[in-house]
Design brief:
- Chains A, B, C, D: This is Histidinol phosphatase.
- Chains A, B, C, D: InterPro entries: DUF5001, PHP_domain, Pol/His_phosphatase_N, Pol/histidinol_Pase-like.
- 4 copies of one chain form a homotetramer.
- Chain A is α+β, with helices and mostly antiparallel strands.
- Helix content of chain A is about 20%, strand content about 30%.
- Chain A folds into 2 domains: about 240 residues, TIM Barrel (Alpha-Beta Barrel), CATH 3.20.20.140; about 90 residues, Immunoglobulin-like (Sandwich).
Chain lengths: ~375, ~375, ~375, ~375
């Protein structure tokens, strides 16, 4: 019997696999002048303490409908380094071709990883991660800044670093005052109320990221996201928006951000007819409101309308039509040109205890 | 101790309950010149052999996102008549106020119910159901026609009436030739291929209905529907469209209808960029196709492109973005102004074995 | 052409339809000496202000895996009486044959319906509902008691009857002291804390029911249920258990009841190995706990173990295996014969602010 | 300002993360004398052409409820070798501690990877993967055999290796006849009918595996599995069962295997009462059958009962109770001591066109 069995050249299937799966759509609307980009700016691979290859991060981003990600492997913590031998730019370089092919914006990043203070900082839009490997954290952060980086304080609420309290240290003031701290994670595994307070006080850019280490598992939901309100769907567009503070943080069924972004986001999610209601005393009229977004908006009445009643609470369910029923309770209502209803949106937060308040104005006559 | 306990006037909660639930949206697009109305034109209540009150049919229609329904209680079969005492117009009259309040179009109908031939006929757009209670089925159908009714043959494939074969009887020819048979159920509990053949041969209007008797249970799906391509969202608009044959039948993940409706329905479901691909030999380009409809379109390549390869099969998943990858396989492709790809859409049927064939034309240069 | 079209005798399909659907299984274990029967003892049909035919209630009970129901149509409130003409026993009589065929225990009941006080009372196990139609509520309740009825106060928290407060009136004391009030609804549309307090103070039987009027919609969940710990799966067994107070109330992911029932229910839900752990200082051992019930048990540590640490919180997810990790923190642990861990089960409530506390005892040596 | 920011020792969280998630239960029953172990014996990591770290394979196995896995990285194909530098035993060594901690049986394996013939072979239960790196495939397979390996032919239907036909080559006969081919993948990404035929003809052990390269994504389902009927839940128990051919292949809602295993698997999944039915002519009796397994069994009547009718088709839905209705159609039925009903189970396959036929025997008197 003749010999057989040559060692073969296999088909490399990975580059085509991306297109075996369909890409979800995250339905969060654009707002006037800006595209709303869905970004996750904190994650790891086997090149630090993660457990997936960099290309997996692109495949996940494609599948889940993201616009942009940053792989932010730790500079100082690489537990797989016995087996995985490469410099700090390698995870970016390995992911970039698939990112380009699938139109995912890949932002070059790294995580500067220290004990508290100052804790962990992500440096985004860097040009060379290897130069960040410096003993002194100030030197490392300064190097990142000199590369043009956007710098953010990661997970200030992480109890492994601050078990008993969540403090802003002198070190953070130092970085903040020297243009080396531009943003803060308001969400990373959990919501961090202190971070939201500081973001509002100091006008830090708000971020919400997954910090995923293993394979991403989103089931029917979505990972935590930084919504970036960008002038263009480009890396430059994201950078400009981050430095300008134009973000919101989307986790579970909640969005946190400044009212100037949340209010248009809310109304751009909705459709309802503008025809006059012609509401009269002792009559009811129904406004059908279509919510085209993925968010179930949870509304609570702030103050009764003038001359009419509106429901105390109503949920505008995602991708459904809700019926808002208004009932006239005085004769004057028939003469009102328009009807104003004020609702608190309990899952749109501008501050820790500050849900967004919105005004619906319906034409009446 | 004083006496207590007066018999009370209860709050009537039913009229408000409608608005406790959100209304789904059925995402099937409009086509040029027509609104695509989602209609179920065959169902029952306790006023014949159903087990729900007529208002339940309106609540279900609201919840599921329907535009129009017809309650078609049997004239001749009323097994609850010992307890439920009313004339044949009663189920319509009881449902109408809630229909109006919730903007569901309620078409007055009834089911003329006989053994085969001719089986069961729905009469839609009638004015007085009581007048259809006549011994002779010809007289009953004639009365319906004289009221202006659209008349349809229900579930020709129902094995309780035709156990061994599905036949078109002389009786059906008689009705058809005398303007007393305008449509046929292509779907009722199951797809009826013979009905589709007859609809195509005789230009009968195609219908697909639930014929629901108990509470509707749609889980995460949708009930079988008649899609009506109407000039306006009115009862008159539906009537005009039905008599003109402008319908399609939507069940499970399949739509059956004439190609003049299915083709625009398909392309109106999709979005993709029109920028030139600039495909060259030995290169690949990806067209990202967004499917905004609820239907997963299942495509199978009919014939290879000229100068390029396209996938043999691809599913355009509902509410997802799919990536169609084209690969140049000859030098001429670089000179083509546009690239044509021909796909069979296996779940859009124009005939029993006739899936719709569609042509994608992508600009290349 | 010859005449055709006889009025036909249709197949009556309803009696067979029951078996077209599979029956779910509600996984709540039996406890020592008792079967845990899943019961809903409050619901309506078209024979009062409901919107479904009585047989629908049996079909729903079959599909959802219930053991017993009671149809409790209002004696005093029958808004459909223009069309639906029957006496108060009729809904029971119509449902009974299908109940027998499908082995659902159907308890004859009615709702005595008055303004507050005393509000609405369900009378269960009655023999003739017509005799309850009496002007004076005392007479009506007395008649029920004389028929051997178990009497319960329905939805004491219903804000249509008690908008600003939830009170126990003299009338309730009167009924309670005269053997005419045996149970109270702790859950009906919502949890009623006052009812739970009264049930505990006065040893009233706790009930949780759906009070469903329209078609039941349980999606992937379950309706609110009264769990009855009965000596036999019979109507007599349920009656004996109700009068003896052997019930718990199961809604959403919560069970409310006395600890004598909740504790065995909890431990009967679980399986884990009894082999010695041999835990030593600075080592960890994992106990794998299988939860065979439908309830996700949410545990919170009450007090640390002696010589070892256990997780602060752990969820024992329904139909999953959870890993409880114990870590030795002193040398003595190696000598312990058994390890006790105390957890609060936050969704098993014995009182309004009293979650059940359970002790896990693991053999160590 | 003083300097700050030491490089820190991070908490290593990965070893504890396993227990953050609950473990599913795969409900496929044991059969007499054997435990039914759920095994996936073919998968990859970054140490060949996979994209996850070896520990991920253990976490996935824990989460999904598997008993045993084998990581079978390619010997000859390691596209990440520029970055990932290690020998062929490394993926096993990295996964083993977590496997032990979580009680997942980890079988040492490797994939010998050649063009067709003979294609790809998995060697399971090897002792040193490095010794398999040999130019001649016969030498490599022989080395594996000498290490005591169970050897299987992987994915014979893979069209990248056999695009136009699925052939058994002389090389396979050579290996088969020389104790170097013991099993064959009947399922790998797709069902391979030829493999099932060969398994039956030659008594090869049937296997069904995931061959997963990226993160496992099972949604609500399960990955393809080899069901191993083992005398003990040990690696030795699995090895003995594999060499003895005691397996079945479980994919989607289908199980493929020999009838001696499928029949007891089917009946061990079911519960029904043994009390006599006492069926008489013109009466119906219902047998309630509880299916405790995860498989929806799809039954089709093979031949009518003697003296009674049974449903033509019935689905015994997973974790539900189904009602099998028997109707007497002759007077003799009342005298039958027992009633036999023969069903084909369309999703239990003993051969390509050979569904398992089962006999239900119900006591009648």
């Amino acid at each position: 019997m003749k010999k057989f069995g040559f060692i073969i050249v296999l088909l490399v299937v990975s580059s085509g696999l991306l297109y075996a799966q369909s890409r979800r759509i995250i339905n969060i609307p654009n707002i006037s002048g800006y595209q709303t980009l869905k970004c996750d700016l904190h994650m790891h691979t086997v090149f630090s303490d993660g457990t997936v290859w960099p290309t997996v991060r692109i495949e996940e981003a494609w599948n889940e409908g993201l616009d942009a990600i940053s792989i932010t492997d730790h500079i100082e913590y690489r537990p797989h380094s016995i087996d995985v031998v490469a410099d700090h730019n390698r995870s970016y370089d390995l992911a970039k071709p698939l990112a380009d092919q699938s139109d995912i914006l890949l932002i070059k990043g790294a995580e500067i990883t220290r004990s508290m203070p100052p804790g962990h900082f992500n440096a985004l839009f860097i040009t060379n991660a290897n130069l960040l490997e410096l003993d002194d954290v100030q030197d490392a952060v300064k190097e990142a800044r000199d590369q043009g980086a956007f710098l953010m304080w990661n997970h200030p609420c992480w109890d492994a670093q601050q078990p008993d309290s969540v403090l802003w240290w002198d070190e953070h003031s130092y970085f903040f005052e020297n243009d080396m701290l531009h943003g803060i994670e308001v969400y990373n595994w959990e919501f961090c109320p202190e971070a939201l307070d500081w973001a509002n006080e100091k006008m830090l850019t708000m971020l919400g990221n997954s910090d995923v280490h293993g394979p991403m598992d989103v089931n029917d939901g979505h990972r935590p996201l930084t919504l970036v309100f960008a002038k263009s769907r480009t890396i430059g567009g994201i950078k400009e928006a981050l430095f300008d503070g134009r973000t919101a943080v989307y986790f579970d069924n909640t969005i946190v951000g400044r009212s100037e972004f949340l209010e248009p986001l809310f109304f751009q999610s909705l459709e309802f007819k503008k025809t006059p209601l012609k509401l009269k005393n002792k009559e009811s009229k129904v406004v059908k409101i279509t919510n085209n977004s993925d968010v179930d908006y949870e509304l609570e009445l702030v103050q009764p309308g003038v001359g009419f009643d509106a429901p105390e609470t109503i949920t505008l369910k995602a991708h459904h039509v809700s019926a808002l029923s208004l009932s006239g309770n005085s004769d004057e209502v028939a003469n009102s040109g328009s009807l104003d209803v004020y609702y608190r949106v309990n899952n749109l937060l501008t501050g820790v205890d500050d849900p967004l308040v919105v005004t619906f104005t319906f034409r009446n006559n």
